[in-house]
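To assess whether the prediction recovers the assembly geometry, we first specified each molecular entity separately, as shown.
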Amino acid sequence: MSLAIHYDSTFDGFLSAVFEIYRQHLDVISFVAERTYEAEHQTATDIFTQPFHIETSEESARRLKRAIVNAASKDVLNLLETCFRSEDAGIEMNILAYLRKLFAGIDPNYGRNPSSLEMIPLITIARSVRREMDNMYGMVRFNKAPDGMYIAEIEPKYDILEMIIGHFRCRYPNGTWAIIDVKRGFGVYYENYKTHFVTVPDPSYISAHAPPDEFTRMWKSYYDTMAIKERLNPRLLRRCLPVRYWKHLPERSLTSFSNERVGETRPQLPSAAAKSNAVASIESSSRLTRPERASLHP
Amino acid sequence: MDLREKLNILGDAAKYDVSCSSSGSKRNSPKGGMGCGHSSGICHTWSADGRCISLLKVLFSNACKYDCAYCVNRRSNDIPRATFTPKELINLTLEFYRRNYIEGLFLSSAVIGTPDYTMELLIKVAKELRLVHHFGGYIHLKAIPGASSRLLFEAGLYADRSSVNIEIPSDKQLQYLAPEKNFASIYRPMNFLAERKLEYKADKSKYSPKFLPAGQSTQMIVGASGETDFQILTLSAGFYKQQQMKRVYFSGYVPINADKRLPVITTKPPLLREHRLYQADWLMRFYKFEYNEILDEKNPFLDPDLDPKVMWALRHPECFPVDLQTADYEMILRVPGIGVRSAQLIVSGRRYNKIRLEHLKKMGVVLKRAKYFIYNNEVPRELHKLYPEMIRPLLIAGKPKSDQLDLFDTMPTALPAPSTAALPAPAPFIQPTKRAPLAPNLFRGDRVHK
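The predicted structure of the complete assembly is given in tokenized form:
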């Protein structure tokens, strides 16, 4: 009977699964990542496949990584990891198909060929993951909390939070800031030159903790004046700045302030209880590092 | 006047400057400060007209003493005037930067008092950002035409990029529309900065101070005076070569002032023409085209229906079809429908396997255009026997679907009448030989250019 492999949704978990597939000669028909935020999609079961859980083993992941580097190169390993972050349905099977060809050893140059039929789609996927990462460099929007911390919420299509941390560490080395991936329920918290991964069960507390301030509203009105009326082009806008980003961009999501006078409507400050809750959740969650997510920058 | 009002007035006054890039600088975050350069630049948002916003683009002041016909800030316009204090502007930049709204500051100004006095104010802001606040973000400073060399040099020490806008692409028209300016006064600061940058480049020590790490840029208004596209491209090619410009921007003229020297105020901005010019600009910057290959004196305007790369291919049937398996990288780049990435993939992949149509599709090559220009076993030979006049209508977009040529049709069923205007004498495609007809291939496609 064909197997539907379950693994813990990390790259190491996936590599361990591939390792086991080779070791036990498993007949795989699909891969299922155990993601908490996508639980509802995974309930569908198939009577012809059998679920099979594979535990993550660092040792086997390490061995497989070494094998990939030997057979292809370090760049290919990085590319596979980048593709894996796309979390696309079926990306695991694509990578597996590539690895099968790579390890079959029929073509000794296969690892160096960027235009094999298995490689080109992976390159395309990696490109769009990197594009999402580049977009996020610009579209993380921090709000200042009263205690001087800067908090941003993002909702990227792909799991790229770990890939963008280095950029922000380089940019704000002395600050205290947090970036939270709302969709995946985890975030990164930076303080005293150190990053911590934190799980964030309820991000709404945190956004209440850092409401938009006067500078946010100045930014919004500046943004509105920058458009040249004679050249308005909504299609181009949507192509460059897809609507899915708008929710977390104050310049697109805030209502216009142009008619209202300064200081007339102050943003609602969160109640004292909500505020202390938010602080508590940040403080408590900062202790909950996520061991399964190895930092990109050890 | 409060800060938000000032920001709106001075942002509004600066928005016609199209330079938006924040690329080319790899500044590290200074000790004790914040901010770094990102070499490919970062767009932070896009305004409702689809232009990217990456820098806080403002004027220091819009109280101008000049009276240039095309400019919104000319002294004869009745508009609200405002001037920042350096402190306000610095605070605004830092606060926006901390929230990751912007990549840095783009500071320009109307001429207040003398050019030197204006330039000093701009430098003061940049200097304080860099030295007092240890700001490592991007700073684009406008060089005010007429400012002294000493000040231009100082600006180069703090800014990442500097620019002087030429605005009108011919000297005569410029003097007509902007009585206080001429080409000499605009070229002088450009040349000065380009020379200083060359000097600094020669000194390769990693401790030597940076001088305009992201180079210079300029911009031209398209459609305000009667220049041809050929004149504009010639001028911009000169900027890329002689002044080592990083970018030349084109700005479709938006009528803001009623002036008898300019097109009437109801004119629509020439957006398509601007778009075609940018396409031609891309051909020069990334596709190794020369300006006089794209246009010449006989054809001084770009075709509104087809992009300049297709137009070049149709004028040069002797170069096609290209055999992707053996042709030079430069030649593959010239095939319509193949971009830089696909060309690199083809060149580095063809050593290992034959490039078939299936590969091209997966790479994202636009076969709709490319199929007429490549030699491949899977492309019907009949396609290569078409004359350029026959291909042209097939390529023009907006045609009804039923007329599209199917890849596997034997022959196009109905051929439109050939239009001989603006095309050279018809020359049939050369039948494919084993090697590509142009450019002998020395390394069998080992060269990947970036």
